[in-house]
Specification:
Number of domains: 2
Strand content: 15-25%
CATH topology of the largest domain: Surface presentation of antigens (SPOA)
Largest sheet: 4 strands, antiparallel
Strand order of the largest sheet: 1-2-3-4
Length: 152
């Protein structure tokens, strides 16, 4: 323990007296009973009602909200892309590519394209031309269980 000088003790006492005066002027007595009583009075004025819940029915879950729940996600945009093939290439070779260069892919001619939604394979298809625009005809759709398995 350190010993305080008589001057230091006098300064601490004076500071404590100033704080006591300021608290008295502000109406704070250091007791919290008045505050607790005000809170108790305010809470007793509030009308308390029991919560009301919908009756639960036994059996199959209700599906009356299924359509509205599905409608909430129908306008969420997703990215649909087709993958012709891919390859791995060294950066040295990548930097040497020029107009007219040929990059060999990992697929054979005539093999179906992969159809991806947000990067997840959902189907395979073949390229078609409709009104001078490219399109894809789906030839095989991946089952939902297979899609989930591939996500893991």
């Amino acid at each position: 323990m350190s010993e305080e000088s008589p001057d230091q003790e006098g300064m601490d006492g004076a500071l404590a007296d100033e704080w006591a005066e300021a608290m008295a002027e502000a109406g704070e007595t250091g007791e919290s009973d008045g505050i607790e009583d005000e809170w108790a009075a305010a809470m007793s004025e509030q009308e308390v009602k029991p919560a009301e819940f919908e009756e639960l029915s036994s059996g199959a879950p209700a599906t009356h909200n299924f359509g509205s729940d599905l409608d909430m996600i129908m306008d969420i945009p997703v990215t649909l892309s087709m993958e012709l093939g891919n390859t791995e290439i060294a950066i040295r070779n990548l930097l040497q590519l020029t107009q007219g260069s040929v990059v060999e892919l990992d697929r054979y001619a005539g093999e179906p394209l992969d159809v991806l939604v947000n990067g997840t394979l959902i189907a395979h298809g073949e390229v078609v031309v409709v009104n001078d625009r490219y399109g894809i005809r789906l030839t095989d759709v991946v089952s939902p269980s297979e899609r989930i398995r591939r996500l893991k």
